[in-house]
């Protein structure tokens, strides 16, 4: 059946349906895992059923795999036999005995692994059944950490013992039946971190009549979004409202970003569009002061063409002045909050500082999860609602809730990375090895691949990403097919062919 056109008589009914998100929110979808490692410091034991571990028990657990391997891998009696007996012994007999010893050690290691997992489950069960403290926090964290370590070491020893028996060995293959895997059981997951409680943030409370005029020039949309994020930080430091660039000189941000979402996150008007700014200023579109953050290769990293475009908006401006005479985009110097407030604080109504993509200001603060600004949302900058709904439908159709998203840049990075020493451009096999390790740790069945690589590269990459003997599928955004409905929203609203939208969805 062909895709309906924007003027279809049934579009009103579908519009109502489109407003409904097809995927439940994360809090409704997530189920409580049996193994919640991130919350171990809160797990507690009932006094009647609790058991305490000291260093001797932990040491015994640590040494057990080593003792087993040494004991069953070496025939101790042979060490005391005469050399003449060894010379006339059968090589096949020794080989068979070694093989039996190794397999016996492997069997016992599997038993140990099962016991450790049972112990882990028991501690979790005790926690779920009661809420009284039975073990000190530090002792509990040390115990759980050591249990996890021993389970991982146990698995590594098993894999090492199996390595010499994988080919043509029915016995070793049989031992793998009923495998109790660490990844499958949920053990070894990354800890959940409450970033909200650890973030260093500042309040953004702008004065209503003071504006910071954002100008972003460098690179494509991803660079421009980083530039906008840094502008938001500057605006917060300077108590100003941020003016989003006009589509006549930059991207059409209102098609790809949910600008109102940003204001809702702060509970006040902290960002406005250029059109709203122009309406507020009426006949006085003027940048009162242009203080350039960057001075090299040109002030504010703004060339003559960009200045002409700005003036084409009816915007006038004064002479460009520089905050620092030697601030070069190729060698940005580290700056602190005090540097920014001292150089850019001004009583002028409208301030511009040029492109700040390369600015190195409080990097650890800015790059922390959740960003440097205090707000009430999980994510501050989000795509528009149409793009979000389309992405949710794509995930619901192709990926499911457990997947890895991979941005695999190739063509642009070839030149960029080869300019560094050593080069940061990975050959496909090396990249595949890194991706495989991440996929194995995450235990995800599928990878979403966003890339500019050719099929010759992605085909090789796909063939090399194998976890536990199974290929992990690489899913790319398919070419448009009228039979598919996951992207119908973009089609009906005339956004399907928009390169900005496609870029935002893919990256």
From TrEMBL:
Source species: Papaver nudicaule (Iceland poppy)
Residue intervals passing through the bilayer: 57-74
Family of the protein in this entry: Belongs to the glycosyltransferase GT106 family.
Chain coiled-coil ranges: none
Tagged with keyword Transmembrane helix: yes
Molecular function in Gene Ontology: peptide-O-fucosyltransferase activity
Protein name stated in the entry: O-fucosyltransferase family protein
Entry's Gene Ontology BP terms: fucose metabolic process
Membrane topology: Single-pass membrane protein
Region (Disordered) location: 1-25
Cellular component terms (Gene Ontology): membrane
Subcellular localization, as worded in the UniProt entry: Membrane
InterPro entries: OFUT2-like
Comp. bias (Low complexity): 1-11
Main location: membrane
The entry's keywords: Carbohydrate metabolism, Fucose metabolism, Glycoprotein, Glycosyltransferase, Membrane, Transferase, Transmembrane, Transmembrane helix
């Amino acid at each position: 059946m062909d895709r309906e056109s924007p003027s279809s008589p049934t579009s009103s009914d579908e519009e109502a349906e489109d407003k409904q998100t097809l995927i439940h929110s994360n809090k409704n979808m997530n189920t409580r895992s049996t193994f919640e490692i991130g919350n171990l410091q809160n797990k507690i034991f009932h006094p009647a059923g609790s058991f305490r571990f000291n260093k001797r028990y932990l040491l015994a657990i640590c040494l057990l795999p080593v003792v087993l391997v040494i004991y069953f891998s070496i025939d101790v009696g042979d060490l005391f036999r005469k050399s003449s007996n060894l010379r006339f012994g059968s090589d096949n007999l020794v080989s068979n005995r070694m093989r039996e010893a190794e397999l016996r050690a492997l069997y016992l290691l599997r038993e140990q692994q099962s016991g450790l997992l049972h112990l882990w489950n028991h501690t979790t069960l005790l926690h779920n059944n009661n809420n009284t403290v039975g073990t000190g926090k530090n002792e509990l964290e040390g115990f759980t950490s050591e249990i996890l370590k021993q389970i991982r070491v146990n698995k590594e020893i098993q894999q090492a013992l199996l390595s010499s028996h994988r080919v043509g060995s029915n016995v070793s293959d049989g031992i793998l039946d009923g495998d109790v895997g660490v990844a499958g059981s949920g053990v070894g997951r990354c800890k959940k971190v409450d970033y909200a409680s650890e973030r260093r943030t500042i309040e953004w409370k702008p004065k209503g009549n003071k504006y910071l005029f954002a100008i972003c020039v460098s690179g494509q949309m991803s660079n421009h979004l980083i530039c906008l994020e840094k502008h938001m930080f500057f605006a917060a430091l300077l108590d100003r409202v941020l003016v989003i660039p006009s589509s006549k000189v930059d991207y059409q941000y209102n098609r790809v970003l949910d600008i109102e979402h940003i204001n809702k996150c702060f509970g006040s008007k902290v960002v406005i569009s250029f059109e709203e700014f122009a309406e507020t200023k009426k006949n006085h579109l003027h940048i009162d002061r242009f203080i350039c953050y960057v001075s090299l290769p040109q002030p504010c990293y703004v060339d003559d063409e960009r200045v002409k475009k700005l003036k084409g908006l009816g915007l006038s401006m004064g002479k460009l002045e520089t905050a620092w005479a030697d601030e070069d985009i190729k060698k940005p110097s580290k700056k602190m909050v005090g540097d920014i407030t001292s150089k850019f604080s001004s009583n002028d109504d409208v301030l511009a500082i040029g492109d700040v993509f390369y600015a190195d200001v409080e990097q650890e603060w800015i790059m922390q999860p959740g960003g440097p600004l205090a707000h009430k949302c999980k994510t501050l900058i989000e795509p528009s609602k149409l793009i979000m709904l389309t992405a949710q439908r794509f995930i619901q159709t192709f990926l499911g809730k457990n997947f890895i998203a991979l941005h695999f840049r190739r063509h642009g990075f070839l030149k960029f990375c080869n300019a560094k020493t050593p080069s940061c451009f990975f050959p496909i096999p090396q990249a595949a090895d890194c991706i495989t390790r991440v996929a194995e740790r995450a235990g995800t069945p599928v990878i979403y691949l966003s890339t500019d690589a050719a099929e010759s590269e992605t085909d090789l990459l796909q063939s090399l990403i194998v976890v536990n003997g199974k290929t992990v599928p690489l899913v790319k955004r398919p070419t448009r097919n009228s039979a598919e409905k996951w992207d119908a929203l973009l089609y009906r609203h005339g956004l399907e062919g928009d390169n900005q939208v496609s870029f935002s969805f893919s990256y």
